[in-house]
């Protein structure tokens, strides 16, 4: 079972998301937080596999939660879940360590798949979001550690990077390209090394910034 924690200041939203997730026999909601301060206290104690985090809350915001727990290396895999389609806030959240972004009107299937993907170590920058990310990068500096001039990517690496930007897992990329999953893992490792970043999300953000994809 994938253990999930919900963080939202609206009780009805938490109840609604919990009801959706309880329809899945692979996911268990093990905790809730009613605001950012509550989340900062409870998340390390409860230690969920995945956190579903609202971004706009009174007091400590979702971004504050990401930055505080991320800075202390106590942030579990986290999905931003919000009603607001806010480019800069989403990008700031991803840069602060969130593994993905979904609107609260997401379907049950999309929500469950996102939770499973993030729990498995993947990011979920979905195709519908990439254009917003691209536009947002024009307004938001990427200040995470990376190489200013990454080594050139091969044609295959660029192809895989585009699929990474679509939120596809290594297995899905392998199926799409008809290659072994291990081959994709090697390419992803090379991409991260060449771009001087430590994870897939930062590779995608850096790629957009440099117009690699």
Q: What does this entry look like structurally?
A:
With 213 residues, the chain is of the alpha/beta class. The chain folds into 2 domains: 2-131, Rossmann fold, CATH 3.40.50; 155-209, Winged helix-like DNA-binding domain superfamily/Winged helix DNA-binding domain (Arc Repressor Mutant, subunit A, Orthogonal Bundle), CATH 1.10.10. The protein is 51% helix and 12% strand. It has helices at 11-21, 36-46, 62-71, 87-95, 108-119, 127-137, 155-165, 170-177, 181-195, 200-209, and strands at residues 2-7, 27-33, 50-53, 78-82, 100-103. Strands 2-1-3-4-5 form a 5-stranded parallel beta sheet, sandwiched between helices. Helix 3 links the parallel strand 3 (50-53) and strand 4. Helix 9 packs across helix 10 (200-209). The radius of gyration is 17 Å and the shape is globular. It starts with a strand and ends with a helix. 39% of the residues are buried. Mean pLDDT is 83; it is low at 137-147.
